Amino acid sequence: MKAGVRALGVAESYRGSTSTLAGVVVRASRVVDGFVFGSCTVGGSDATAEIADMVDRLGREDVRYLLVSGIAPAWFNVVDLAELHDATGLPVCSITYEESEGLESAIRDAFDDSAVVDDRLSTYRAQPERRPVSVADGTVYVRSVGIDVDRAGEVVRAFTPEGGRPEPLRVARLAASAADAADREQ
What we know:
CATH superfamily: archaeoglobus fulgidus dsm 4304 superfamily
CATH class: Alpha Beta
Strand content: 25-35%
Distance between the termini: 42 Å
């Protein structure tokens, strides 16, 4: 991959009822090239719209890929990857870091309201299957929309120079945590 290709990584940090989202533009050469921040409701259903808004506010036509840490940030605020792809026009990859049986039972256990459970499960079930991708120091699990499975693996590997987390997501998680900590201190 060319060194100047850019990906926007979005990760979260939360305490209380709001989750801080950070978006970080990183070049394939590992140069950090921009930031954008947002928030979504813990336990809500606004993560997809907020991430799309972050991409819009960033206003960067040079970003080629959108990487999202996880599929259900902010306590099961499930991201609809197809909706995100449609809203941004970017290939979208959701990356998780552990093998699991999925979130269906956890979603059922998390909410008392059956309408909320049904809505979350409907969105969650509509997402593509996770596929394992070998990276520098292990395996991550990738769901992708707007990009074929093999190319998604290439992109994730290209942005993961070491460790088990793509660089745009690693830096975004750090930025979200710092912004969240700064908000709590005020």
